[in-house]
Fold:
Amino acid sequence: MREVRGLDELERLVGQQLGASEWLAITQELVDGFADVTLDHQWIHCDVERATRESPYGGPVAHGFLTLSLIPGFRCQLLTVSGVSRVINYGVNRVRFPAAVAVGKRVRGIQTIKTVERTTPDSARVVSGFVIEIEGESKPACVAETVTLVFA
Structure:
């Protein structure tokens, strides 16, 4: 975990990869819970028997948006900014899902700080690149560019 104090130290991280989060197991319970929250119960995610029988993945896979939604948790493992009043998720510039995550696999996040742009003397817009890796796989599950607002 990297810890920086304030916007000035945060600006010095531009271009740096912060490392990798802990591995997280993608369980059927996690996938089913996400399906319940998002109302997306497509069979390829939730019907284990049918997915095992019919899907090209040989079983159920996580929703792409489930994978994307893990980024804030991974970010908390990788970077703490102290001396600020708040950090707010502002959006995503680009998201791709190059590979499906089979239930039972583990994923982790890798963050790189791309830009830190002062929007006022006491706030900044931070753009981070995230790669969500699948353990043992060559293609990532998700590649995203996230935008966070940080206020002193």
Remarks:
- The domain at 2-151 is CATH 3.10.129.10 (Thiol Ester Dehydrase; Chain A).
